[in-house]
Write a structure and sequence with these properties.
Blueprint: H1 20-37, H2 42-46, H3 68-102, H4 105-122, H5 129-139, H6 144-169, H7 177-205, H8 209-232, H9 237-262, H10 273-307, H11 310-325, H12 328-343, H13 347-384, H14 392-417, H15 421-446, H16 448-474, H17 484-500, H18 504-526, H19 528-543
Length: about 550
């Protein structure tokens, strides 16, 4: 049990009993309590022997239903990550505004190209490890040291190889020394971001999303703040890229400190050769699939740069920012739902989680797409100046693509969790081939708008195929009515905006109000039981004081030191 002893130098996770006999008594009581609550989750609780309270605050049942405590944990993690992602994405959005106003279109195009190129090459280094490790940690947290250490060997090896390959290939895609340095610095920053994401795997596995949130906020706020200072002082694009690198480095250091201080001890020597080889074999198909899927989002910018130049990349980058900035909703919901989905032992429990996430993803992305039709040009001109207003045509297609991206992302995670990795690879390869063919044909003729259309078509295809695979594996022919709620509400929103003729700011405000009202009304009609459950959960959370909750967090809050 040394691995979970919570020694003082690792942070106060547990309080040690005064003698060995007391330790044994507490340990036996903890195991018995865990088995009485839920035998299916006993492995999680046994890993907590010797602590005053379990690491998993709100245990859920094996069927995925969970208790009210489990629902509260799910809601708390969702809110934590959502809040952090909102802050981070607002900071990223502010960074783009700073760059588009402080640089010319071609310079911003260089920066956007560097981000796309580095992300495409380095993502392959994830090798499908993240979902596998999160699921393994959720099932058996007592193995955190050997799982993390073994995964780190695979992850760091591929990440370093990707870094060297990216820097080595960069001269083939850029035509100046300054452009090469931009790619090299940004690639280094993305490399650090990938390592931070791997540290965040432990946070997800322990369902402590507050630490992931702090990683995001630290990275984005520092990068954006430093970039603003450089732009105000008239600094160059290279100096801005260095500030971007410093933000990534700060986030990695903060994440590593949190891992050491607030979580069970991790010793790198606990890495096991069988685990390393197992991760390598398991990650082959998923790693290829992730690489192929990232290519869907980065290939268009790279092809635009090669076929139409930096200006086209800059215009497309502004429209793409609206697409990329909102992807955090799919990532957040999938990250929070994955441990619950992995622990469910019945198809019914998994299906409830699956369709719930699909409904939530659609509820967010679809009204954004509808709103872009009526207010997109006004938003772009207001934020990025009139120089970028021609990007509106691409904006509409990319926000529509966001709806299907969110569904495809969650469906991919669910299918992989059920062990169907080969199908994911074939779907990703098919989608990438279609995307490449459309871009190759249409970009020389129609420019960046064609790249947006290609993204939309491939996301629709990928979402349809992945959802079909999941339903076939789950042996469920269709969704329940809860999935149709956001679709109907978005349709009502579109009809209202079209009938009133509103546009620009008026369409933005009216669209939000109409959609929220329609969503509440439609939910009560089409999904009354799900709506009642959510309302009851919110009332329980509101009625409980912070100190009166039955279950308290065992891990210390980082803000408390």
């Amino acid at each position: 049990m040394r691995i979970l002893s919570g020694q003082g130098r690792r942070g106060v996770l547990v309080k040690r009993p005064s003698n060995n006999r007391q330790t044994q008594a507490v340990s036996a009581q903890t195991v018995r309590s865990a088995q009485e609550v839920d035998p299916a989750n006993s492995s999680d609780h046994i890993a907590q022997v010797g602590s005053e309270s379990p690491l998993e605050d709100h245990p859920t049942g094996a069927d995925g239903k969970g208790s009210g405590q489990g629902l509260r944990l799910f809601a708390s993690n969702s809110l934590w990550m959502m809040l952090a992602e909102i802050v981070a994405k607002l900071s990223s959005f502010a960074l783009v505004i700073i760059l588009t106003r402080g640089l010319d279109v071609a310079e911003y195009g260089q920066f956007n190209f560097a981000i796309s190129f580095a992300s495409l090459v380095l993502l392959f280094g994830r090798w499908g490890l993240h979902p596998t490790l999160v699921a393994d940690l959720a099932r058996d947290r007592g193995r955190v040291s050997e799982l993390f250490s073994s995964g780190l060997v695979v992850r760091s090896s591929f990440a370093v190889a990707g870094l060297l390959i990216a820097v080595g290939l960069a001269p083939l895609f850029v035509d100046s020394r300054e452009a090469f340095l931009v790619v090299a610095i940004v690639t280094g920053a993305v490399f650090l971001d990938e390592l931070s994401a791997f540290v965040g795997v432990v946070f997800k596995g322990f369902e402590r999303m507050k630490f992931n949130g702090l990683l995001l906020i630290t990275n984005r706020l520092i990068s954006t703040g430093l970039a603003l200072v450089v732009v105000l002082r008239g600094g160059s694009l290279l100096i801005i890229c260095l500030m971007y690198f410093l933000g990534s480095l700060s986030a990695l250091l903060m994440g590593w400190v949190a891992l050491i201080r607030y979580f069970p001890p991790i010793r790198l020597r606990d890495a096991r050769s069988p685990l390393i080889w197992g991760f390598f074999k398991q990650g082959v198909s998923l790693g290829i699939a992730l690489f192929l899927n990232m290519a869907l989002f980065r290939l268009d910018a790279i092809m635009l740069g090669l076929l139409r130049g930096d200006v086209a990349v800059g215009l497309y980058g502004v429209a793409y920012r609206f697409f990329e900035s909102f992807l955090f909703v799919a990532w957040t919901l999938s990250s929070v739902a994955l441990p619950r989905f992995a622990r469910s032992s019945t198809p019914q429990g998994r299906m409830r989680t699956f369709e719930g996430v699909v409904a939530l993803v659609t509820a967010f992305y679809l009204p954004v797409a509808v709103g872009s039709i009526f207010a997109g040009e006004w938003v772009i001109a207001s934020l990025f100046t009139e120089r970028y207003v021609t990007a509106t045509g691409a904006l509409v297609w990319l926000t529509l693509a966001g709806v299907f991206y969110g569904i495809a992302y969650w469906a991919r995670i669910a299918v992989v969790t059920l062990g169907r990795r080969t199908e994911v690879v074939w779907v990703a390869a098919c989608a990438l081939a279609i995307n490449f063919a459309i871009n190759l044909f249409a970009i020389p003729r129609y420019g960046f708008v064609a790249a947006a259309v290609a993204t939309f078509i491939t996301e629709v295809l990928e979402a349809a195929l992945l959802v079909w695979i999941y339903l076939r594996v789950a042996k469920r022919p269709r969704f329940t009515r809860v999935v149709t709620v956001p679709v109907v509400a978005s349709f009502i929103m579109a009809i209202a905006l079209w009938a009133t003729g509103l546009s620009d700011m008026g369409a933005f405000i009216a669209g939000v109000l109409v959609y929220l009202a329609a969503l509440a009304a439609v939910a009560r009609v089409l999904a009354p039981s799900e709506t009642a459950a959510v309302v009851a959960l919110l009332r329980r959370r509101k009625g409980k004081a912070s100190g009166a909750s039955v279950s308290q967090e065992t891990l210390p809050d980082p803000a408390e030191g």
